[in-house]
Design goal:
- The chain has one domain: Porin (Beta Barrel).
- It has 382 residues and is mainly beta.
- The protein starts with a helix and ends with a strand.
- It contains 5 helices and 16 strands.
Length: 382
């Protein structure tokens, strides 16, 4: 029973233990904007630029409360060259399995951005539990392009704020699904909390397209060990296109990631497609499918994972949410798959404040456990 409680704690805590707050996909597809429209980091995630800050504080909150509590002429820019930002998340959770509950301070991020000149800036994202991003960004390439150099998360797939999803990093412990997770298989992809890597990235954003190519050491989250010399480098490739109109916005794209020198238990190769649709600026669907190839025994195993999320903007400041994810670590074996159904809402009662009540239904095959969760997340952002 103790192991089950520990596993469930890791599942619940990990569900929202995020490295940073990302440009949520539904906001991007609703507005038809690209990640770099709202974030200092061109691939999204982390500190918001002036447009992103204004959007988060002016467009998201419930209008009545925003007018009563909002600050006039407030800006995170301390000078015209130096800006700050922050994300803090506190979680209350309840476990069905053993009927226990707890509060958990799961995120505390501070962001700093220093402009060195009109084209080059230095960015730092320091997280509460030790992981960080630090890179130089030079917007000097044609086609609205850039060069990014340092330690950061490779561009891949749908950038969501829940790093516990299979399409990001997966659960933080194989016991979270009642110990039924096959030993030796990856719990998710290489893009969870603390999985930043050292390398270089080139990005371009012509017209309706975006494209990123990254070259990395291949030691995500390795700290000092990430500087170990390797014969081959890890590559990541991501591209997408967005078509917008007055009634419908559509985004489609694909990703590829290959790590020839992975840490133990991580995937060698992942590849997949993603997309999103927004209707009437209030109904959105985000989806992604990925295949993960892992050396296992004398051959490679192929796992498959799906992610789907539907959001409906009921009124300004209240978003209804239904999510579904599925993971089969080895599609050639009939038994052994895992899925999560998420029901809830996202509330923005005040500028800089988000409240997220969720209920999660966890299912394991062939053996199912009564391990559903209730989550209540409080998010403060700048």
């Amino acid at each position: 029973m103790k192991n089950i409680r520990e596993a469930l704690f890791l599942l619940v805590a990990g569900t929202f233990l995020v490295q940073t707050a990302h440009a949520l996909p539904r906001f991007a597809i609703r507005t038809g904007a690209k990640c770099q429209s709202c974030h200092v980091n061109p691939t999204g995630k982390g500190m918001r630029n002036a447009f992103g800050f204004n959007y988060g504080n002016e467009e998201l909150p419930i209008p009545t409360f925003k007018e009563a509590t909002g600050l006039d002429d407030f800006s995170p820019s301390l000078t015209q060259y130096f800006s700050i930002g922050a994300d803090y998340r506190t979680l209350f959770f309840y476990n069905q399995a053993d009927k226990t509950s707890s509060f958990f301070q799961m995120q505390g991020n501070l962001y700093f951005n220093l402009r060195l000149n009109k084209k080059v800036s230095v960015y730092v994202d320091k997280e509460l539990y030790g992981s960080f991003e630090a890179f130089g960004l030079a917007k000097i390439l044609p086609l609205d392009g850039y060069v990014k150099l340092g330690q950061f998360m490779p561009a891949y797939g749908t950038k969501v704020d829940d790093h516990n999803l299979f399409i990001r990093g997966g659960p933080y412990d194989p016991r979270v699904f009642g110990g039924e997770f096959p030993p030796g298989y990856p719990l998710g992809l290489n893009f969870g909390a603390g999985m930043e890597d050292d390398g270089i990235e080139l990005g371009f954003a012509p017209s309706i397209f975006t494209f990123q190519f990254g070259l990395f050491n291949g030691f995500p989250g390795g700290g000092l060990t990430a500087t170990n010399a390797t014969k081959y480098k890890t590559i990541s490739i991501r591209g997408d296109a967005t078509i917008t109109s007055d009634l419908i916005n559509i985004n489609v794209g694909g990703s590829y990631y290959n790590n020839p020198n992975p840490p133990i238990g991580r995937a060698h190769t992942s590849y997949g497609a993603f997309g999103a649709v927004s209707l009437f600026k209030n109904l959105t669907l985000n989806s992604e499918v990925d295949f993960v190839k892992t050396p296992f025994g004398a051959s490679d195993s192929i796992g498959i994972m799906y992610y789907n999320e539907v959001n409906y903007l009921l009124v300004t400041g209240i978003d209804l949410k239904v999510g579904y994810e599925f993971y089969d670590p080895n599609k050639d074996i009939q038994n052994g798959s895992f899925s999560v159904i998420t029901l809830g809402a996202e509330l923005f009662p005040l500028s800089g404040v988000e409240v997220l009540p969720l209920y999660q239904i966890n299912t394991e095959t062939p053996k199912d456990f009564n391990n559903n969760n209730f989550l209540l997340l409080f998010h403060f952002y700048l």
